[in-house]
Amino acid sequence: MPDPSPQRSPGILLASRPETPLLDSVVWPADLRALPETALPQLAAELRGEMIDAVSQTGGHLGAGLGVVELTVALHYVFDTPDDRLIWDVGHQAYPHKILTGRRERIRSLRQEGGLSGFTKRDESRFDPFGAAHSSTSISAGLGMAVARDLDGRANNVIAVIGDGAMSAGMAFEAMNNAGAMDARLIVILNDNDMSIAAPSGALSAYLARLASGRTYQGIRDFGKRLTSYLGKTVDAAITRAVEHARGYVTGGTLFEELGFYHIGPIDGHNLEHLVPVLKNVRDHCRGPVLLHVVTQKGKGYPPAEAAADKYHGVSKFDVITGAQAAVPANPPSYTSVFGRALVEEAGRDQKIVAITAAMPSGTGLDLFAEVHPKRFFDVGIAEQHAVTFAAGLASEGYKPFAAIYSTFLQRAYDQVVHDVAIQKLPVRFPIDRAGFVGADGPTHCGAFDTTFLATLPGFVVMAAADEAEFKHMVRTAAAYDEGPISFRYPRGNGVGVDLPERGVVLEIGKGRIVKEGGKIALLSFGTRLADCLAAAEDLDAAGLPTTVADARFAKPLDTALVERLAREHEVLVTVEEGAVGGFAAHVLQHLASVGLLDSGLKIRPLILPDRFVDQARPEKMYADAGLDHAGIVRTVFAALGGGKARVLKA
User: Fold this and answer.
1) What is the mean pLDDT of residues 469-493?
2) Mean pLDDT, the chain, whole residue set
3) Engineering a disulfide at 364: which of 57, 244, 404, 505 sits with its beta carbon 3.0 to 4.6 angstroms away?
4) Where in the sequence of the chain do the CATH 3.40.50.920 domains occur?
């Protein structure tokens, strides 16, 4: 199949390619397996160049994929994918995998509307046996596939590739414990690049570093290599085990072996002459659970990424030659940065405020807090369950913890939110980033459900800011509130450009506000759709439909007086939110039904996120398709009125 890719960028990195690239002959992994082993380094170099060029045009996750180029080539060379199941934990490192599995001609559609997902996705390719985007799921999924294989009497291999950052999550160890107890035939590859999204934290990171660098470990390993080299590749497994146990007596064994895994490594993840033979031996001679410890370099092979502090984990479009990323237009500050600065300010006034993140300090804005108040900042690793209960423990001792977690990541800790926080009425503060649509990150990171699953909990205060000024008020309100758990949600991206107060004010709990008075139509917004409600009100006013706009601020406790007033004084009431069914609108409807106002002839229409998982697109397109932009709000009003005045609406 010819390569339809556009002209590639020139430069030192890409210009060294031979006249007849090998990559052009590889469409599927079967083509790769037809190459001689000696050709793999050249193919890897071309694959790295192709990935760099593609991501320079689309943006996306760069550093993680660069670090696993050789590993990707080796895995598809040694294993018979897709019959052998290859699972990439998180999936953000899978761009090279996508290029080698029939998707090269679409690789420049990454994270675009109608294009390839930025993560692995089952309905995108048969080479993606398990979809991902949240971390630490690969070993559990792989074990399930391995057990299914054994029940079916099949003999294929199952390989889970998991990063050192993802191994900080308890779920990974739960799966390993289960796999070791079952003695399941499962291959786990630990991709140890000493870095996840942020700097590594916790005891596991230090443990892996000691394993990789320990002189005793390496000496015993070398002895084992020399011994088994004389016996050939068919060495009896018992002898190999004896060597491993001998090493265990000297070093105390490894954590992975205590869990029942046969531990191999660390080995150089960029040396194909080492990777391929080891993978073949693992494939052919290991019968129980195996952990292969591979050391790689995030951003490998692209100097700007290697030199960057985050190894170019996530990038916008960039210049291949210089590495310079596309300039971001001057816009209002992001909600994330407003949160970080506001919390720093509040913590300067209150020594009891502490901040917690689950491996996302920059993503949540808490990197600013860590710089100013390092002793009160805690990065617990990819461990949202622990983060929430850790925060509960702090709250029980009189501290004011802010557990800043993405909406979709908070889903992973829901039992802890219910059992350890809500039931005990502990005042844990939950800043919820990435609420609503997230554009290119698609359905796996879309914050659709937090209002629904938090507002059902007794005693929980659930807020959403309409703009960055309201957001500052909510940060201060959360800091001041000490009666129980409280949350405030905010979207990815920039604010709307309102003036920011020097410091937020403490809001009255459960009290909304009227932003614009009208008479016939009422628009009740929860969250950042308020600007579109105001724009819609202008069009409705011009069409002879005077419109009231209100900002609910709280889904719980609901401002019932405001809701009842809007219902009694208007013909149409439209609720607008960036959340799933069962959220803010459900609470409004529940109250109106309980007081009999749904029997009064009121036309009420809830606008929510679609009841489906929405693939990636530009955020403005996603809002328009969902009917949550100002035009969609206007259409909803006219539909409620019967559509008779729609022609009056100005273009």
Assistant:
1) 96
2) 86
3) 404
4) 513-648
* pLDDT surpasses 80 at 201: no
Assigned CATH topology for domain 12-315: Rossmann fold (3.40.50)
Residues 6+ apart with CB under 8 A from 632: 607, 623, 624, 626
Catalytic residue among 103, 104, 298, 376: 298
- Choosing from 111, 412, 434, 556, the catalytic residue is 412
DSSP collapsed to 3 states, 605-636: EEECCCCCCCCCCCHHHHHHHHCCCHHHHHHH
**In this structure, what is the dihedral angle of CA atoms 169, 174, 175, 178, given to the nearest 10 degrees?**
170
pLDDT of residue 592: 96
> Which SS3 state, helix, strand or coil, does residue 236 take?
coil
Question: Sign of the C-alpha dihedral, residues 481, 482, 485, 491?
Answer: positive
Catalytic residue among 70, 384, 468, 578: 384
pLDDT 10s digits, 22-31: 999 999 999 9
Q: Which residue has the higher pLDDT, 582 or 330?
A: 582
Mean pLDDT computed over 483-489:
97
Class of domain 513-648: alpha beta
The answer to whether 412 is a known catalytic residue is yes
- Residue 325 tokens, joined: 């990323």
88-137 pLDDT per residue, tens: 998 889 999 999 999 999 999 988 888 998 888 899 999 999 998 888 88
Looking at the DSSP assignment, which residues form a beta bridge with residue 365? none
Any catalytic annotation for residue 603?
A: no
The CATH H-level superfamily of 335-489 is Thiamin diphosphate (ThDP)-binding fold, Pyr/PP domains (3.40.50.970)
